[in-house]
Amino acid sequence: MHIMVKVKLYGDLKKYAPGDHNQFSMSLEPGATLGCVCRMLSMQKGDHVSLINGRRSEQDEKLADRDTLVFIPQISGG
Amino acid sequence: MNGWMGKILRVDLTSGACSVQPMKTSVAKDYIGGRGLGIYLLNQEVDPTCDAFSAENPLIMATGPLTGTGAPTGARYMVMTKSPLTGAITCSNSGGIFPTEFKRTGYDAIVFAGRSEKPVYLWLEQEKAELRAADHLWGKNTHQTTDMLLAKTDAKAKVACIGPAGEKRVLFASIMNDKHRAAGRSGVGAVMGSKNLKAVVVKGKGRIPLADPDRFKAFNKQILGTFKEGVKETPLGLTVNGTAGVVMATHNFGVLPTKNWQQGTFDGWEKIHGEELTRRFLKKNSACYGCPIGCGRKTQVDDPRFAGEGEGPEYETVYAMGSNCMVDDLAAITKANYICNELGMDTITMGATIACAMELVDCGYLSEEQVGRSLQWGDAEALVELTRMTGNREGFGDLLAEGSYRLADRYGHPELAPVSKKQEFPGYEPRGSQAMGLAYATSPIGGSHMRGDPAYFELFGVPESMDPHQWEGKAKVTKAFQDLSAIIDSAGLCIFFAVRNLAAKDLGVAPVGILEYLNAATGADYTLDELMQAGERIINAERLFLTKAGFSRKDDSLPKRLTETPAPTGPAKGLVCQLDKMLDDYYKVQGWTDDGIPKKEILQKLGLA
Question: Tell me: the pLDDT tens digits for B37-72?
Fold first, then answer.
């Protein structure tokens, strides 16, 4: 059975969206990782920070059904 | 001396006499300059139990050995005094051009002692200091004051001054320099006002001597080259959207303080984000002296309700006046920010105090009749109007001018004030950013992110990321960042560049790049250990002042809202800030007692016993 995840792309990263919307759902094979999603969206390494359910996450982290993935540009300062 | 100018100007406002003191080589090396020199002088000058508004409380302005040298972001100065808001120290920091011009007059620092009977300003032209009458400037805002002083003295001079808020002792009045840059926090402007000192005007021609110009230049080329290479493909977020671009991160991490710190997510965040500021109001970037980032924003608002122009707002302002007040109208936030700059007030405390008043009204502890107008969550007009009234201490603004703690306490609910040591927090929610809670509680100035900024390792992943929800292991890293901040603030640098580019790429954040700059500039031959120990010395010298003023563990606190009430929304939902556990670890790492008092051993090691 596939899993469904919600994806949100912000800032310049909207360019990686498959359609006109920066928020969309993706259907993935069970066991898919964050890295799989980045590859499917052809995202460049190093230009973004990835959050799974609000937590900074690495490429090899496995995704679960109904996870929310947020991608924001590299952050600096504040 | 090299790097340092070697002289401190002492201005006795009571007698009007100006005198010059040499800076001791050992003091320069042990305390670096800026913040370190400030706390050294403050500890020499004053009894920490004094009244902040008494004549005996000195106002100290200090540059660092890298200020004005051309080291990237070497543009800063520090204002040190006893704070009327907290009763602890201030170390309120600002950039722009003024600090470099000030240092070029030939002094590392100015100590303003006593109190003038009548309003005065200091005219400092190339070592020559003169107090002049400022009666005609009293009541003028910071922009008017600056323009009038430049017309009177020299168009190329630089001005730091207070506005009406400082004159009227608003407890969080700022000192504005170059019109738009603020030594914003802890009420430094109110102390300046209490001394009847309206402005400091500087004009310097002197060169800042470097011990080894070739070594300095070579290292500068290397550091700037690496920086420019790094931002070639993807420009820094700070350059593109200013600090307000951080809203995107803090909302998505669930640490954007909202509704007077009740929650860490704000539905209207995209309306107040830096991208919106860029799209709607940005005219052009502005940069402090020698800064390759340029995070400053020259902005203009045309909306007739909130029309104006100036600089900002910064992220902290957007949080405090935006999400925290549930205001999603960026024009209103920007206008309130302009008013703060013109009247001379700290935007963080201003916004946080209005949000606290909104909650007092919401809970029925304060009536709108007492406020004199409506004051509901999200009321953009109330935000702007109450900001103006506060700077002039007009109507209910007179109570807001005391900050959120005194306001909430007056109405019987001090627990609603988002403060540590009575100073309001900046915009990172400790329930979802545990080390930030520890940093707020242990900062020597009360709520502050700039005295050791854990957002770097908890949110930005610099130099490497730590889970923001876990509290274990945070004490040691927070201390390392606090020591680093003491060194950055003392050298005269800006944290935005130095943490990423001048510190080691591990969580020990040894100041390796600052070391090279300092040695090339000063010739003081610091070892890395000596420099890191200077950071520790500064932190402990500050803690000694606080200890003598009566502060201890009981004051290293956060409101129960953050330590007992679980976060209701977002990624940190269900979490509280584990401050007590982190404090136990932290005092051990510092070499302080369980009550937060520096032990004899650490003081002896640092030469403070």
Answer: 999 999 999 999 999 999 999 999 999 999 999 999
Place of tokens 């242990």: B442
In whole angstroms, how far apart are CA B104 and each of B11, B99, B499? Answer: 18, 9, 26
Burial class (CB in 10 A: 0-12, 13-18, 19+), B232: exposed
- Which chain B positions have a beta carbon within 8 Å of A59's beta carbon? none
Place A77 in a pLDDT band, splitting at 50, 70 and 90.
low
> What distance in Å separates the CA atoms of residue A67 and residue B62, rounded to the nearest whole number?
51
Rounded to the nearest integer, the mean pLDDT of chain B is 97
Q: Residue B238 and residue A76: Cβ atoms within 8 Å?
A: yes
Q: Which tokens belong to B45?
A: 């000058």
**Domain A3-73 fold:** Ubiquitin-like (UB roll) (3.10.20)
By the CB < 8 Å criterion, does B274 face chain A? Answer: no
Residue A47 has a pLDDT of 79
% of chain B exceeding 90 in pLDDT = 98
The yes-or-no verdict on residue A13 having pLDDT over 90 is yes
Q: Is B177 helix (H, G, I), strand (E, B) or coil?
A: strand
Which of B145, B248, B259 is CA-nearest to residue B192? B145
Domain ranges within chain A, ordered by starting residue: 3-73
Contact A74 B234 (CB under 8 A): yes
Look at residue A76 in the predicted model and tell me its pLDDT. 64
Three-state secondary structure call for residue B82:
strand
Dihedral angle of Cα B434, B440, B442, B444, to the nearest 10 degrees: 160
Query: Does the beta-carbon distance from A56 to B496 stay under 8 Å?
Result: no
* Mutual angle of helices B528-548 and B512-522, in 10-degree steps: 100
CA angle B2, B5, B10 (to 5 degrees): 155
For residue B591, give both structure tokens.
């070499």
In whole angstroms, how large is the CA radius of gyration of chain A?
12
Range with the poorest average pLDDT among B35-39, B428-432, B455-459: B455-459
CA–CA distance, B476 with B59 (Å, rounded to integer) = 33
> A45 and chain B: CB distance < 8 Å anywhere?
no
User: Does the beta-carbon distance from A10 to B236 stay under 8 Å?
Assistant: no
